[in-house]
Specification:
three-stranded antiparallel sheet; Cell_cycle_FtsW-rel_CS
Length: 473
């Protein structure tokens, strides 16, 4: 009884109330998608809003179980959870049902369950366990391999299920690593990789190499290597001129790609010698960063053409405006933007959305639930939803920072990272700023698996927070 009282007193009720409000508002929008104003029947189990009530009820029971469980249980059994969910991810490939070309669901009677939602929880717990023990360091190769295996093993299995979007979500855990000491260069490289991938779709490779070369020299300059930057520039200009002259002498046109690479290779050799003689590791890091980006530039065509499916390539091209297919690949997003735009400032009103009522937007109660908010509640409603998620994320960061235990803090940041990725990508894809990868909006999208997964993810952290003064290892 004393332990239960301490748990109740230690619960962050602000986050609990935020959760209840978001789940409630989410259900209201699911109801709006599924109901017919002319034939109102509140309890009809064939309707998604009735099933969602059942999922919500089960979630509340799950919350009670979590809050009555000792916090050390989640630490001690984190690897067990990970092993079980990994087994389920493999098993579903063989005995699962295929929905929307992805074999990622178990079906028992009329119920379906997607194990990937539990895999997010288990992976976050396992990652926190690894990083809080064994004097973990991002500069230790064995630690990096152990951590990478934990994250990329379920991703690989999920990709085999043909559910790439759900697998990519686990990469969000890398956001939490920066709080734990991961070099910011990794973040910069990731951002540059995304930018380069997009640029390769729009401009020629030699233009990208030129941009990268200028950026590289500026990075050397801003790191207070002024003399080296000037010498690099001079060497690059000279060797580019020599390379261009050789091409012209050979009787062909100038191959700007090769000429630029020759120029940067010459200046890089100078910089590498300088870094070795004067023992300047920062220059070495910049060199690795530059040539890694160059290599990535020339690999994007292969990745895009050979590793992505046709529907994935088309979605990216539509998002970048390089392909217009309003009745095909771009149909969902186009109808979603129409629905959101038609809501105006205050929306059309509850149950008054025409896009909603006439089912113009596919998957409107799941992946595209945000457009229902936009149509019926307008800009004001969508702003409130975004604000709620911002408050939730900031609250999770605040709670994570007050943990005495490394395990609880790392897990808390993992939870915040997964929520951030889901919210940013889901809302982004409904308004055309992100490719459609089929991931739900937390607490709003219809579905028992996603609601349970997000609920368990959040309330395990809230349970750990009730013991925030203890050192859990």
């Amino acid at each position: 009884m004393r332990a239960q009282n301490r748990t109740i007193k230690g619960v962050d009720w602000f986050t609990v109330l935020l959760y209840l409000f978001m789940v409630g508002f989410g259900w209201v929008n699911i109801y709006a998608v599924n109901t017919d104003p002319d034939t109102l029947v509140f309890f009809d189990y064939s309707k998604e809003y009735t099933k969602q009530i059942v999922w919500i009820g089960v979630s509340f029971v799950t919350i009670g179980v979590i809050m009555l469980t000792d916090s050390k249980f989640f630490v001690e059994f984190s690897y067990v959870f990970y092993a079980i969910t990994t087994f389920l991810l493999i098993l579903v490939i063989f005995i699962g049902v295929e929905i929307n070309a992805a074999k990622a669901w178990f079906q028992i009677g009329g119920m379906r369950f997607q194990p990937v939602e539990l895999a997010k929880v288990a992976t976050a717990l396992a990652v926190a366990r690894v990083m809080c023990r064994f004097q973990f360091s991002f500069y230790n190769i064995s630690d990096i391999l152990r951590l990478g295996t934990l994250i990329f093993l379920p991703i690989l299995i999920i990709i085999i299920q043909n559910d790439t979007g759900s697998g990519i979500v686990l990469l969000a855990l890398f956001i939490a690593f920066f709080r734990e000491g991961l070099s910011p260069y990794v973040f910069v490289f990731g951002f540059v990789a995304i930018a380069v991938f997009i640029l390769t779709m729009i401009i020629p490779n030699h233009s990208i190499i030129l941009i990268l070369s200028v950026a590289f020299i500026l990075m050397v300059l801003f790191n207070r290597f002024r003399k080296e930057a000037l010498i690099m520039t001079a060497i690059s200009v000279v060797f580019f001129g020599v390379g261009a002259a050789i091409f012209k002498t050979a009787g062909g046109g100038v191959n700007y790609d090769v000429a630029l690479l020759i120029a940067m290779a010459a200046s890089s050799i100078f910089l590498a010698i300088k870094a070795l003689l004067r023992r300047l590791p920062k220059l070495g890091v910049l060199l690795i960063f530059f040539w890694g980006t160059v290599a990535f530039t020339y690999s994007t065509d292969y990745v895009f053409e050979e590793m992505l499916g046709e529907y994935q390539r088309n979605r990216i091209l539509v998002m970048l405006g390089l392909k217009d297919d309003p009745l095909g690949v771009g149909y969902n997003v186009n109808q979603s933007k129409i629905a959101i735009g038609s809501g105006g400032l205050l929306g059309k009103g509850f149950l008054q959305g025409t896009q909603t009522k006439f089912n113009f937007v596919p998957e409107q109660s799941t992946d595209f639930i945000f457009c229902t908010v936009g149509e019926e509640w307008g800009f004001l409603g969508t702003s409130i939803v975004v604000l709620l998620f911002v408050i939730l994320l900031l609250r999770l960061i605040f709670l994570a920072e007050r943990q005495h235990s490394d395990f609880s803090r790392i897990y808390g940041y993992g939870v915040a990272s997964i929520f951030f990725f889901h919210v940013a990508v889901n809302i982004g894809m409904t308004i055309g700023l992100a490719p459609v990868i089929g991931i739900p909006l937390p607490f709003f999208s219809y579905g028992g698996s996603s609601l349970w997964g997000f609920t368990i993810l959040l309330f395990i952290f809230l349970k750990l927070d009730t013991n925030r003064t203890q050192l859990l290892r």
